[in-house]
Amino acid sequence: MKQFFCCTDSVYTYEDICNLTQILLELGVREDPSKAASGVTKTSTAVSIPYGCVEQEIKRFKNICLDINKNVFGFDLFEKTEFEGVLYNIYDSTNQGEYGWHNDSVIDQMYDIKLTGLLNVSTEDYTGGEFYFFNGIEEEIKEFSKPGSILLFPSWLTHKVAPVITGTRKTVTVFFTGPCLK
Predict the structure, then answer these.
(1) 6-18 pLDDT, tens per residue?
(2) What kind of architecture, by CATH, is found in domain 6-179?
(3) How far apart are CA 15 and CA 12, in angstroms?
């Protein structure tokens, strides 16, 4: 692995983001905001949508992530199915939306989550909501704060979203899975 994350800049336009978020809200089923990794603070809201319902709208996002994987990470990934979930995450300042230190993993499954892909779909200005990795030290990924940007990283990396102070931070999450390493 050449690097531990990859961030692109302005892949989606403001109009693309508005269209996508409208579709996501229309299709979404709200999850319990307390559904988080064990012992982790999570005050954001996640809306889960079947991948098949938004496949065309996020095709560019998925393909960029797959291209990055091919050139940077090299993981053996399964093809996405229409039944897999896509998460629309809303971090609102009214409850200082955040998601504490965690990694993305599954327990006792026949697959592993290999990569986490995030797309910043914020449509308004916000403060706070910074994205951090912990790789021996806290490292803020400032490039990801720009709407339309993509962040891709191995899912086992410890990361967090700091509390949003003003406005609303919105992201789309796609998990890329592959063969289990058990």
Answers:
(1) 999 888 999 999 9
(2) Sandwich (2.60)
(3) 8
